[in-house]
């Protein structure tokens, strides 16, 4: 009977430890902020040109930069809710390989060096008038410390 209780206690302890790890994530995924308090990974967005006409060509560039003194696993994405108003003609990446899901284009780099950046470049043709709002997220992978950048494309 004592052996059964000990085995049950060990199983329960193992389950609790696994649950804590699943909730908290791997310890190595958390990166400290730099001495100036900047986020570990920050994102930027440029849209060129930011105003165009139907049929106009536009380049959208998202960048994630590692602001820490150590190598991190980083994630970068461009959310584009108005993707139906655009025809994406090319998607490329620097220091990562983007995946294009139309509404979301994202990539990751498991070895983003200190001070290094990765980018996603999207070339598109505007096919409908209106306002297209883009959001970029950048973060240390498997964390929720996202930084965001926003941009608007106006098509007339």
From TrEMBL:
<keyword id="KW-0732">Signal</keyword>
<protein>
    <recommendedName>
        <fullName>DUF11 domain-containing protein</fullName>
    </recommendedName>
</protein>
<feature type="signal peptide">
    <location>
        <begin position="1"/>
        <end position="31"/>
    </location>
</feature>
